[in-house]
Fold ABC transmembrane type-1 domain-containing protein.
Amino acid sequence: MGAKTKKGVGFWLSRVLIGFLLVTTFYPFLQLLNMSFKSNLKIKLDFLGFPSPVKLENYVNAWGFVLSPILNSLFVCAVSLFLILFMVSLTGYAFGRMDFKGKNILFALLLAVLMIPYTLLIVPNYSIISSMGLLNTYMALILPYIAGQQIFGVVLARTFYSSLPQEMFEAAKIDGASEFQVYTKIALPLSVPTLITVGVTVVVSMYNDYIWPTLVLTTGDRMKTFCQIVFNNAAGNGASDLGMLAASFVIGTLPLLIITCSCLKYYLQGMLEGAVKG
């Protein structure tokens, strides 16, 4: 029998730290679930207490309250995501597998954009969208999302494409394949995990965005996104039923939870392929 490994202070300290991080991470969400089953009066008088009685009406009311905003958010995310992935795969392939003049300079400029804080781009982006007459339209969200959300994906895709064996591409070209056929038949199928990683990242970012939709969608609630509706009401500009708002947050979280959990395997695989290789 092998000797038992002695567990030192570092082992137990790491376990305590992990437990503390788990509690601090999940407790707010558990408290949100707790609030979603309580009446408004119960939340104000006994915030930490358990729901008694359980108020399921909160979810019925919340469903009608956030269904349209959730669909608006998912529509914007779907259209933006399709175009982002298309451009990320093409641009990443060009930087990773093709040689052209100014390639390194262009990629350095692309990386430089990552250094610019998002808040500094709000004013020029708003000016551009306003001058194009796109305020209070879905395109006011879609175009800036496409322009701003693809940079991380291009870097990840470029790293992945550049790590693929050169012999595989040379063999395809010897067989008569064009550059575009090599991209569609070889590079693109292999990059699916990387593109899923990019997709999950940008969808979470776009779905949770509050500042930009608030600036460009200002007329009525018909086109507003999920975060706009619930955050505005949570701040006191609308519905005052805290239980219903908590249930709205829970319902609005489900699409992201489903997307993330269903793609988690490929998300992790894509992160490793895009960041470790090359």
User: Anything to note?
Assistant: The longest helix spans residues 57-97. The chain has two domains: 10-55, 66-275. DSSP finds 14 helices and no strands in the chain. The two ends are 43 Å apart (CA to CA).
